[in-house]
Design goal:
By secondary structure, the chain is mainly α. It has 2 domains: 3-224, no CATH class; 235-265, no CATH class. It has 9 helices and no strands. The longest helix is centred in the last third of the chain and has 46 residues, at 202-247. The N and C termini lie far apart (101 Å).
Length: 266
């Protein structure tokens, strides 16, 4: 395959979404090495996902989703909700739980979203590379930019929830199960829509992505706002402390005044 087309379809989307999320995390950016690690974990997660699908095949429970979309819509819905969504979200979630939460730089709620997004970016890159053989160049470029966005939106749900529970010392498993169920369900609904009626369902699938995007954008904005407020309060406390210490130290002139006053009273 032409290296230029390969770059447009895979490399440029990765660079674009990486730059976007690094900019969103500009107030307290994560170490680039950690982000690269998460990207590689996402690539590995794609392999984990494939193993899960092969496990379904061994149990005679794996189906062709495209064929189901043409012949059995109820079957496609069940497969999307019970297999596609849970398998792909769980595959991305596992390295987040096992590796990312152990990173020392994981110290604020936004980190859960950022790290989960880079895992999703790595996952979608492998997925896009697999689908290149079935797509035209225009379709591949469109998928190259849209595919990562879809995975990033769903991963942000459990990334934020688990990250927040981790920082607050709450149960990780409870947060993981609830957020995984939500992300998997939304993922299943999205895949059902785009596989059942790709063109007719486009407004609905786009609306679903827009709603998650708005939630995510408002969430990130709120985190930034709270961080800025906490930083401002911290600076004010430092200044107040310095002023308090300065007020307890008598000036040279005041000390001389006390001595002079003392002599006069004698």
């Amino acid at each position: 395959m032409n290296i230029v087309w390969l770059s447009l379809q895979i490399v440029l989307p990765v660079l674009f979404w990486s730059a976007y999320h690094y900019h969103k995390d500009r107030h307290l950016p994560e170490p680039p090495a950690n982000l690269a690690l998460c990207f590689l974990l996402g690539c590995a997660a794609a392999g984990i996902s494939r193993l899960f699908y092969e496990g379904l095949g061994a149990l005679n429970l794996r189906y062709d989703a495209l064929e189901l979309g043409l012949t059995d819509l109820p079957g496609l819905f069940a497969y999307a909700m019970l297999a596609i969504g849970p398998i792909e979200e769980l595959a991305k979630l596992l390295p987040f739980l096992l590796v990312v939460l152990r990173l020392r730089a994981f110290d604020e709620p936004l980190d859960g979203i950022i790290y989960a997004s880079f895992i999703a970016l790595g996952y979608s890159s492998i997925e896009n590379a697999y689908y290149l053989q079935y797509l035209t160049n225009v379709e591949a470029i469109a998928r190259g930019f849209a595919g990562p966005l879809v995975h990033i939106m769903f991963a942000s749900i459990w990334g934020y929830s688990i990250g927040r529970a981790h920082l607050q010392g709450r149960s990780l498993w409870q947060a993981a199960l609830i957020s995984l169920a939500i992300a998997s369900s939304l993922h299943g609904i999205y895949d059902f829509l785009v596989l059942a009626e790709p063109l007719a369902a486009l407004p609905l699938s786009a609306l679903l992505m827009l709603m998650i995007w708005i939630w995510r954008m408002l969430l990130i904005r709120g985190i930034h706002s709270r961080s800025a407020h906490e930083d401002k309060c911290g600076i004010c406390e430092v200044i107040a402390g310095l002023e308090g210490k300065a007020g307890n130290i008598p000036t040279h002139a005041a000390a001389n005044g006390q001595e002079v006053g003392g002599r006069r009273r004698r």
